[in-house]
Amino acid sequence: MMESTLKRTWAEIDLDALACNYEILCGRMGPSSRFLGVVKADAYGHGAVQVSRTLEELGAAYLAVSSIDEAREIRSAGIRLPILQLGLTPAEQAGQLLAHRIAQAVWSEESALSFSREAERLGGRIKVHIKLDTGMSRLGFLCGEEQFSCSLEAICRVCAMPGLEPEGIFTHFAVSDEVGEGSRAYTLSQHRQFEAMLRALEARGVGFSFRHCANSGAVVGYPQFGHDLFRPGIITYGAGHQAQELGLRPVMALKSVVGAIRTLPADMSISYGCTFRTERPSRVGVLPIGYADGLHRTLSNRWRVWTPHGFAPILGRICMDMCMVDLTDLPQIREGSEVEIYGPHNSVTEAAQLAGTIAYEMTCAVSRRVPRVYLRGGREVARELMLRG
Question: I need a labelling partner for 60 at 20 to 30 A (CA). Which of 82, 107, 268, 313 fits?
């Protein structure tokens, strides 16, 4: 790990908050459904290795990633939990799946056949989870009335292929996190298709160790859909518009410091494009954080940072490496004072709404040059900087 040479901008990852969220989610889903930790995209920007290690200690049953490289990173850290590769994997990487004990999502008979042939050539068996498309229209065996019989036959053939070990079957909900009768009807329809295929396969003597469909939205709105595994995504990290409903705690706090303070007269423009002009003599703080760190430029003139003495609005356009904030009414704030960009006091979900996006994108956008500092009991237990040393 390369040490950061400047107290500049960093993300604090509260592993106690992660543990608290884990317990709340497991309690909601009950003892018959076990936790599948979604740690793709570097655990939504929180750090896949430390998050995976914590989930393993807490008793999670499975992890999920979206690429072989993500899985390899977790394995290289000594984490032994089963890993499901949800994304598209070329069949020629079957050796990596076998070597690192990674289960692969299979979305079509053609993809399954490619994996089967390669696994046979290598003398191994790849664990696979069959992906059903019940209405997401992304990947999977179609389960609508017109395609049901063809998909049933194809899945039966896949499950009989040499070189494959059919371990799981799953689907993904499209609108389980949205309110309204239309969204509810659509989600219930998706689940009916999922269960119909499970019953049809069982009647053909095809069963699975792991059936799963409950994403974040379903954990909140449809906990009865737990099956064998549930796989919450963003709510695991205490973010997203549904996290507050369950009393989940934000795991990430993105922080920076006041690097400089300048006193500007009235009628002075600030930053690129002159989109903000001071209306009074102003005390302006310059923060060493910008859009290259993950602070979206769309939050220019719209967001604020939190301080223990109140909020400081962002003034003018956010730059690549810096932004400016109004400290005129916060005389207690000095150069070197810490501020929270978002976290427990400054909701990333609210920031995402202002930016016209979702909390997922905000946390994933925190860049590689921002160190992650991991806390337990309020004390630092690990630190990671993704830049190559």
Answer: 107
What count of residues does the chain have? 389
| Catalytic residue (choose from 127, 237, 272, 291) | 272
Using CA atoms, how far apart are residues 314 and 326, in angstroms rounded to an integer? Answer: 7
Q: What is the CA radius of gyration of the chain?
A: 24
Cα–Cα distance, 207 to 212 (Å, whole number): 13
Q: Which of 40, 127, 131, 255 is catalytic?
A: 40
Quick one: pLDDT at residue 251? 98
Other Cβ atoms less than 10 A from the Cβ of 21: the count is 23
Q: What is the DSSP string of 120-148?
A: HHHT--EEEEEEEESS--SSSEE-STTTH
What is the Cα 244 distance to its own chain's centre? 16
Cα–Cα distances (Å) from 209 to 130, 167, 229, 383, in that order, read: 12, 6, 10, 37
Collapsing DSSP states into helix, strand and coil, what is residue 342? strand
Closest to 119 (Cα-Cα) out of 135, 105, 136, 99: 99
Residue 110, token pair as written in the block: 């053609």
- 123-137 tens-digit pLDDT: 999 999 999 999 999
Helix/strand/coil percentages in the chain, nearest 5 = 35, 25, 40
pLDDT classification of 4: cutoffs 50, 70, 90: low
40 carries an active-site annotation: yes
Provide the 3-class DSSP secondary structure of residue 86: coil
Burial 310-329 (b: 16+ CB within 10 A, else e): ebbbbbbbbbeebbbbbbbe
Cβ–Cβ < 8 Å for 155, 111: no
Helix, strand or coil for residue 283? strand
Helix (H, G, I), strand (E, B) or coil at 329: coil
Rounded distance, CA 362 to CA 13, Å? Answer: 15
Asked if 347 and 305 count as a contact pair (C-beta separation under 8 A), the reply is no
CA 86 to the chain's CA centroid: 13
